Amino acid sequence: MSEKEELGFEEALREVEEILRELERRDIELERAVELYERGLKLLNYCEEKLKNAKLRVQVIMKEGQGFRLETLEKASELLKNGKV
What we know:
The structure is a single chain. The protein is rod-shaped and about 65 Å long. It has helices at about 5, 10-25, 30-55, 75-80, and strands at about 60-65, 65-70. Helices cover about 65% and strands about 15% of the residues. It is α+β, with helices and mostly antiparallel strands. Strand 1 and strand 2 form a beta hairpin. The chain has a domain at about 5-55.
């Protein structure tokens, strides 16, 4: 498991914020800035993937006749938009 996979979403986001603060300094060396930029991009991609996975896991309980069923957020949204609920 790589270092970034061991980070939680919030930890990765905090590190991105720290990187941004450091990149805003005027006295930062070019090589260090490039390293930080690359690390920041990796962390942002990691955060984006975490958000996508979390979104896929969200489920909505939909009333169906006398009972209920679970739907993904996307499917529930589509059903509501099309007036099928």
